Amino acid sequence: MNDARPPRQAIRTLQARKRIALIAHDGKKTEMLEWAARWQETLSRHELLGTGTTAGRLRSELGLPVEGLMSGPLGGDQQIGARIAEQALDVLIFFWDPFAPQPHDPDVKALLRLAALWNVPVACNAASADFLLSSPYLDERYDMSIPDANAWADARSV
Ligand SMILES: O=C(CO)COP(=O)(O)O
């Protein structure tokens, strides 16, 4: 079994204004809208982005300025995953639906893997999202440990 791991960690500093991704599967969109309405004032202090349909509904129903990427089944989860790999995302709020298989399940799994890999705070339901948004770290700079990509590359070059 290949058990290669990054040999070292590095520090990444999150700024006080966070870049927050908001995503909800169809069966969870109402819950996401209700949750975001409760946190509207807090969310509006940060930079928001989301998959296409989720972002569109947050804009049209709550007036939140959410940058819309591609819809999830068309590659939106992968775009958010790319932001994580580029250290361009700070918090992931993803209400994924535990009752509905998705045509893009591999993309969902890939996104959650990258979030785990890069130590990105993730909430997968309203209660965990409440905890994340009420954290004192949300509005402060925060140092976190991430894999050292250079050490990984050096360890693998021959
Ligand atoms: O499918 C999604 C996440 O996996 C969400 O996509 P939409 O926001 O476009 O519905």
From TrEMBL:
Keywords: Lyase
A single MF term (Gene Ontology): methylglyoxal synthase activity
UniProt cross-references to Pfam families, sorted A to Z: MGS
Tree of life domain: Bacteria
Catalytic function, reaction form: dihydroxyacetone phosphate = methylglyoxal + phosphate
Ranges for domain MGS-like: 12-158
Residues at the active site: 77 (proton donor/acceptor)
SUPFAM superfamilies: Methylglyoxal synthase-like (SSF52335)
Entry binding sites for substrate: 25, 29, 51-54, 71-72, 104
Enzyme Commission code: 4.2.3.3
PROSITE patterns: METHYLGLYOXAL_SYNTH, MGS
InterPro entries: Methylgl_synth, Methylglyoxal_synth_AS, MGS-like_dom, MGS-like_dom_sf
Function noted in UniProt: Catalyzes the formation of methylglyoxal from dihydroxyacetone phosphate.
Family assignment from sequence similarity: Belongs to the methylglyoxal synthase family.
HAMAP family for this protein: Methylglyoxal_synth (MF_00549)
Protein name: Methylglyoxal synthase
Gene: mgsA
